[in-house]
Design goal:
The protein is α/β, with parallel strands linked by helices. The protein contains 17 helices and 14 strands. A six-stranded mixed sheet has the order 11-10-9-12-13-14, covered by helices on one side. A four-stranded antiparallel sheet has the order 2-3-1-4. Strands 6-5-7-8 form a four-stranded parallel sheet, with helices on both faces. It is globular and about 75 Å long.
């Protein structure tokens, strides 16, 4: 049976015969079909019928429909209505704006709005730096996307990207107390995106670029960093890189290998892969080979151009060529930010002893983590239903908390390295093991440690 997940959780409202034994039959039917019952509530009981709400988790949408069908087959049971709990959670959106000040009477209104607010506006006009102190700018981030590379769903557009950006904003608030707002742009033109962000920048203390396809994202980030006086952070690149480096640091502690001595293979030469490689090199890794659809990137390959050419010139010191399987021979670490199923579990046997596997494609990883564990010493993925989830939530809230607190104008590679070290050190020596190399996103010390690292302070 495939693992079930709360993201495919449903609640079925059942009309049943007035026999509480039917509830057990329903639970049995769900279990036999591979679902997991998480709640059963009798909503109504009478001499004529029972109304029962059954909540269960499934492995995917098709499995959820299968569970509904199996329950409807139980004698004396009719599935009256089925609700998808994920869709219910999103009804009306996940975020809102609320006032931090009371607006109870004319006195409050005259200070929060006209005429009192005019005095504050004039003060800022005379001393522009006070916008950080007298407005929300100092605690506000714009989460900007064009909808061109949303999760693993591809180019689905700005409207379809909105739920993801709302989720990002909710995470900013939950983990770092930052007010973030989704800015979903109806353009995929680089110049228009850059100009749009430049025009809204005065209202924000930082810009979080999100789900913008490569290679366009590289130019957008570069140009915005040059033109704006607030930090610009592409989370798909740098957030991913921070958490990967943190996890790899601890994975190598488990297998007792040193970062400068390991051979690393990265599957995927897009935005995330490029940022991971850049940070690994800055951290001291000396042997990284990037493999894309056409095989290993090598500087002696004259067919390469653009971002792939630059990436090849910075990596693959042994100039190895070939497909992923051949390049993995003798490697210590595999990091996948590419596509489902590209790594066969048995290939891991060709890697060095105590291999480390990070299969980060979402929602379906490069290799089934359960299969990879048969061959590797440490396995991590981007999924929450397996140990060692590598999740950007460990990085970006603390990163922006530190940037905003410091009123930073930019983010540097040194900051990224410090952030990765801070996350790694949250896992203490007596906690570290092959199934716990990275802290949970709910660990209270993580955002504080990352923020301190970004500021260059200790807490």
């Amino acid at each position: 049976m495939a693992a079930t997940t709360s993201s495919y959780s449903i609640t079925m409202r059942l009309h049943t015969a007035p026999d509480h034994g039917v509830v057990g039959a329903v639970a049995t039917a769900i279990a036999q079909a591979g679902g997991i019952v998480t709640a059963i509530d009798v909503a109504e009981s009478s001499h004529e019928r029972l109304v029962v709400d059954v909540t269960c988790s499934a492995s995917d949408a098709n499995h959820a429909h299968e569970l509904e069908t199996e329950v409807d087959k139980v004698a004396g049971v009719h599935v009256y209505k089925t609700s998808d709990r994920t869709f219910l959670l999103h009804l009306g959106g996940k975020i809102e704006v609320s006032s931090k000040v009371p607006l109870r009477n004319r006195d409050d209104l005259s200070m929060a709005y006209t005429p009192g607010v005019g005095r504050v506006s004039m003060a800022i006009a005379e001393h522009p730096e006070d916008v950080w102190r007298l407005t929300s700018k100092g605690n506000t981030v714009a989460v900007v996307t064009d909808g061109s590379a949303v999760l693993g769903l591809g180019n689905i557009g700005p409207g379809a990207a909105m739920p993801v950006m709302e989720g990002k904003a909710a995470l900013f608030k939950r983990f770092a107390g930052i007010d973030a707002w989704p800015i979903c742009l109806d353009t995929q033109d680089t110049d228009e995106i850059v100009r749009a962000v430049e025009m809204i920048a005065p209202g924000f203390g930082g810009i979080n670029l999100e789900d913008i396809a490569a290679p366009r994202c590289f130019e957008i980030e570069r140009r915005l960093r040059e033109s704006l006086d607030i930090p610009v952070f592409h989370d798909d690149q740098h957030g991913t890189a921070i958490v990967v480096l943190a996890a790899l640091t601890n994975a190598l502690r488990v297998v007792k290998k040193n970062l400068p001595e390991v051979r690393v293979v990265v599957s995927g030469g897009g935005a995330a892969g490029t940022a991971i490689v850049t940070l690994l090199l800055a951290a001291g890794v000396t042997d990284v080979v990037v493999v894309d659809r056409a095989g290993a990137l090598s500087a002696d390959d004259e067919t390469l151009a653009g971002a792939h050419r630059q990436l090849a010139e910075e990596t693959n010191p042994r100039r190895v060529r070939g497909d992923l399987h051949s390049v993995l021979d003798g490697a210590d670490v595999f990091i996948g930010v590419s596509a489902p199923g590209v790594l066969k579990a048995e290939w891991i046997a060709d890697m060095a002893d105590d291999a480390v596997i990070f299969a980060l494609a979402n929602p379906d990883p490069e290799v089934d983590p359960a299969e990879a564990e048969k061959y590797a010493a440490v396995v991590a993925s981007g999924r929450s239903d397996y140990p060692n989830q590598i999740n950007n939530v460990l990085a970006f809230p603390g990163v922006f908390r530190g940037l905003l607190d410091a009123r930073a104008h930019e983010i540097t590679v040194e900051m990224l390295l410090r952030a990765a070290e801070a996350i790694a050190l949250v896992v203490k020596d007596d906690e570290l093991n092959p199934n716990f190399i990275i802290p949970t996103v709910f660990h209270p010390d993580v955002p504080k440690a990352v923020a301190a690292a970004i500021r260059g302070t200790t807490e």
